[in-house]
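Consider this record:
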Amino acid sequence: MNAPSRRKFRREGEDRRRQDLIEATLDSVAEYGLQGATLRTIALRAGVTAGLIRHYFPGKEELLQAAYAALVGRMTEQAKAALAMEDASPRRRLAAFVTANLSTPIIDARVFSLWATFIGRANADPTLAHAHREGYLGFRNEVEAVVAEVLAAEQRKPDASQLRHHAIAINALIDGLWIEGCLAGEMFAPGELAAIGIRAVEAELGLAPERGEQ
């Protein structure tokens, strides 16, 4: 077996060094799986000693948990960036949010493989399960907030239970299309999944097609 390629472990601050180790962990998990991603392989990938890893993380479990939290956080932040569009209507911001979730770099076979690998362990690891729950709820809260803005612009005032219902449904729609795109992206035309997602989300919210739409 070929030795893993080494990352250049930067001589920078503590946070940067921790991040380098997390990136090396994600690389190792992607290549070797959770069992094969030992502290030794992670250390080799990062170009450090296993002893140095323990300066930043008590052990492999804590390093894996940090890596999963970083993966989920990165996916969420990339999608949330679409909500920061200036001078855009709430409906356009929602469409951009859906599009961001159904486009690269979030739709990516490696990202899906890593996510699925960690999720497969969540039932046996309460800390990973907690990280997954927090990531899910954080994402759903973002969806609820933008949906509330969209419906307010439509002169509609949904209550908390209705917003929750919409957010759960929209999250499920996005998740399903995301999985399809990650596993079989070559089957879809550029932008096709995003267009399907936007129409499905607008139908869930009962929005009439905008002028010019079919």
User: Anything to note?
Assistant: DSSP finds nine helices and no strands in the chain. The radius of gyration is 20 Å. The first helix runs from residue 14 to 36.
